[in-house]
């Protein structure tokens, strides 16, 4: 900053801008409140259906969010401008005070242009008026004034430049709309940018050769700034995509005998978590530099990264940094499409992921798996982003993603030291499928059910298709997740299981044969069986109280048909596994637990009916196992008699005005409906 610019600076224009932004903040605060308490609140309470449920509600929610982001961004801009203005005024006053002090010693400061200045005598003694006393000064006084002016100008320049960088970085966060980044002043934004650049350069310069103390400092700093948008973007773009991969490859490879593998091995997981959170946040920036970062990272996925001891693929490294954080949806889908495309070209991807001479021991320090299978980390990231998961499972170009990950993909044991464990990539894929089909994040303990979209329904239909085609080869890791999916879609599942025939005009009906096969596969696992049956018990009771067909008895008969459908699926499951039953000898009460996040809340009366039904159903299941009973093609449902009788009782409570029926006659009718549903399901399965 030039001497004259600061010395004679007038801040009228800046003051006007600050006042204008203050007004903008106030107006946006009111608009944000109106959008949140009025628009969004009303939309959440409305009874949406059809296109409105899929489009309008989502649009209103996003619009309300934009008002919140606009208010946040305007507040940050106002804070940075005001803080910078106050700092520059302070530096101007310091400069004028320094110049005044210099004049007392006959020294003046002159601007020489281009940001330079000189300190010289104000009045030469030889030219002083007769009788005028000129103050003395020493060279030390000259140097002191020069250094002070230089310090002030440097500080003012840094204040001005850092404000410029912070404001540009803030605005670049969102290509369209507004950024949610919040900063109290210019200093906090400037420090974030400076610290991000310093740490990224530390990694670039030293990599895994950094000292343990530097490693600790890096881990702490990433944890501190893992929710800081400006830090995230600056760190990622300074380090670069290749720098990110090189760092994680070298840090994971123990062959160089570095200090960090020995002294900080137990802390590598903490660094992995925090690094993943920072990178995830960075991908949500829409800055041009970050968009280039994402494109390049996807391109590097099938590149081999050389370390001292081996070679690994970019997908393997990056996927292990995707196990934490909320990655941008667009990036996730570009990355996932490229990963699937690469794997399909490999044909046997496990041969490649386990390649390298020797293979990399570990790239993952969170959990048990070694991190050689890149699908595990990617699917973990996908499960945290339901919208991205929905897009991924519905993608058909350049390939059928759902068919690959649900049916065709070869897998391998990524935890060879742990016998009998499930396959982590399939476990993660199941969670991603759960997010895609329901719109709910399965990793969020506070998540609540959301309105299904047409895209969610497409995921459900596609998953039923591919998993039913797999038949008995359907991976066991998918059973509990599919049970939860079917419970979340309880209305459609109950409607389909109780259907008397295929009805192409019924939008709620699923493919009955596919549903039966998947229900059978789910029923091969006791826990998954419990999740599914409890979910449909809730749905049947909900129908009693909330569905209003012209003949209320339809809901009772539909419940019976669904029970029969479920019983046939269970029987088919037991036949499949009769030589190697996987169920425990004792029935365990499951309860909903985390599954409750996927099931809509019921009213008090409905919940009482659900609780009573759940208890009677549990009695049936325990008795069935105690007596080692199995369903036979008979006309009675001994294994379900408590459940059916309780359903009849709950139906009577929900329909007190429906006269002419007794508990006995209603139980008889629902038993007959259960047998009929069982017979129809047998026909679907081809088991005559």
Describe this structure in words.
The chain is built from 27 helices and four strands. It has helices spanning 3-7, 12-45, 50-103, 139-172, 186-206, 212-224, 229-239, 241-252, 259-263, 268-283, 288-299, 314-320, 329-346, 349-353, 374-383, 386-394, 401-408, 424-438, 454-470, 479-488, 490-497, 512-522, 526-546, 553-576, 604-626, 641-654, 663-685; strands at residues 107-113, 116-121, 304-306, 311-313. Strands 1-2 form a two-stranded antiparallel sheet. Strands 3-4 form a two-stranded antiparallel sheet. The longest helix has 54 residues, at 50-103. It starts with a helix and ends with a helix. 44% of the residues are buried.
Beta percentage is: under 5%
Helical content class = 55-70%
Report how far the terminal alpha carbons are from each other. 90 Å
**Helical stretch tally:** 27
Low-confidence runs (pLDDT<50, min 5 residues)?
Answer: 40-57, 629-635
Strand segment tally: 4
The rounded Rg comes to 34 Å
Q: SS-based structural class?
A: mainly alpha
Average residue-wise pLDDT: 84
Please outline the major beta sheet: 2 strands, antiparallel
Quaternary structure type = single chain
Give the CA-based shape: elongated
Spatial sequence of strands, sheet with the most strands: 1-2
């Amino acid at each position: 900053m030039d001497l004259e610019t600061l010395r004679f600076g007038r801040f009228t224009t800046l003051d006007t801008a600050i006042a204008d932004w203050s007004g903008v903040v106030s107006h946006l605060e009111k608009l944000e409140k109106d959008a949140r308490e009025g628009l969004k609140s009303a939309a959440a309470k409305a009874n949406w259906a059809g296109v409105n449920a899929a489009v309008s509600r989502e649009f209103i929610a996003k619009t309300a969010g934009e008002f919140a982001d606009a208010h946040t961004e305007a507040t940050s801009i106002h804070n940075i401008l005001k803080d910078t203005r106050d700092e520059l005024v302070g530096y101007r006053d310091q400069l004028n005070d320094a110049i005044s002090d210099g004049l007392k010693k006959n020294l003046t400061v002159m601007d020489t242009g281009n940001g330079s200045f000189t300190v010289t005598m104000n009045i030469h003694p030889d030219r002083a008026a007769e009788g005028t006393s000129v103050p003395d000064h020493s060279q030390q006084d000259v140097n002191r004034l020069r250094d002070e002016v230089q310090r002030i100008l440097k500080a003012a320049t840094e204040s001005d430049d850092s404000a410029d960088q912070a404001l540009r970085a803030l605005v670049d966060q969102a290509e369209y709309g507004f950024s949610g980044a919040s900063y109290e002043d210019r200093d906090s934004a400037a420090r974030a940018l400076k610290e991000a650049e310093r740490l990224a350069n530390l990694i670039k310069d030293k990599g895994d050769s950094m000292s343990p103390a530097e490693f600790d400092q890096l881990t702490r700093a990433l944890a501190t700034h893992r929710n800081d948008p400006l830090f995230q973007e600056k760190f990622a773009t300074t380090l670069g995509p290749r720098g990110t991969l090189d760092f994680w490859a070298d840090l994971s490879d123990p062959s160089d005998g570095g200090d960090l593998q020995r002294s900080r091995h137990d802390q590598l997981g903490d660094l992995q978590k925090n690094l993943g959170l920072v990178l995830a946040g960075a991908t949500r920036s829409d800055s041009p530099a970050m968009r280039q970062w994402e494109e390049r990272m996807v391109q590097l996925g099938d590149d081999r990264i050389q370390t001292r001891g081996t070679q690994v693929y970019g997908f393997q490294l990056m996927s292990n940094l995707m196990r934490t954080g909320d990655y941008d949806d667009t990036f996730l889908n570009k990355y996932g499409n490229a990963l699937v495309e690469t794997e399909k070209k490999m044909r046997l991807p496990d041969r490649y992921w386990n390649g390298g001479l020797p293979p990399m021991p570990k790239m993952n320090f969170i959990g048990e798996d070694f991190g050689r299978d890149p699908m595990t980390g990617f699917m973990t990231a996908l499960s945290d982003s339901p919208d991205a998961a929905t897009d991924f499972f519905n993608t058909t170009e350049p390939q059928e993603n759902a068919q690959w990950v649900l049916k065709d993909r070869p897998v391998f044991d990524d935890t060879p030291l742990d016998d009998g464990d499930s396959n982590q990539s399939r476990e993660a894929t199941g969670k991603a499928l759960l997010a895609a089909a329901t719109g709910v994040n399965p990793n969020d303990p506070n998540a609540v059910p959301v309105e299904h979209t047409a895209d969610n329904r497409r995921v459900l239909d596609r998953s039923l298709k591919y998993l039913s085609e797999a038949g008995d080869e359907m991976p066991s890791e998918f059973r509990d997740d599919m049970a939860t999916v079917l419970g979340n879609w309880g209305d459609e599942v109950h409607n389909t299981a109780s259907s008397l025939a295929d009805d192409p005009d019924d939008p709620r009906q699923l493919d009955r044969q596919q549903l039966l096969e998947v229900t059978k596969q789910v029923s091969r696992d006791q826990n998954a069986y419990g999740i599914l049956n409890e979910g449909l018990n809730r749905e049947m009771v909900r129908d009693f109280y909330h569905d209003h067909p012209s003949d209320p008895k339809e809901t009772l008969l539909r419940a019976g048909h669904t029970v029969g459908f479920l019983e046939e699926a269970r029987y088919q499951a037991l036949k499949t596994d009769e030589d190697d039953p996987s169920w425990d000898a004792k029935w365990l009460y499951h309860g909903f637990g985390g599954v409750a996040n996927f099931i809509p809340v019921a009213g008090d009366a409905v919940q009482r009916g659900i609780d009573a039904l759940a208890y009677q159903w549990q009695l049936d299941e325990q008795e069935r196992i105690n007596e080692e009973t199995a369903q036979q093609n008979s006309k009675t449902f001994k294994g379900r008699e408590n459940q059916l009788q309780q359903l009849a009782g709950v139906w009577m409570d929900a329909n007190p005005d429906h006269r002419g029926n007794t508990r006995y006659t209603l139980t008889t009718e629902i038993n007959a409906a259960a047998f009929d549903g069982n017979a129809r399901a047998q026909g679907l399965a081809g088991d005559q």
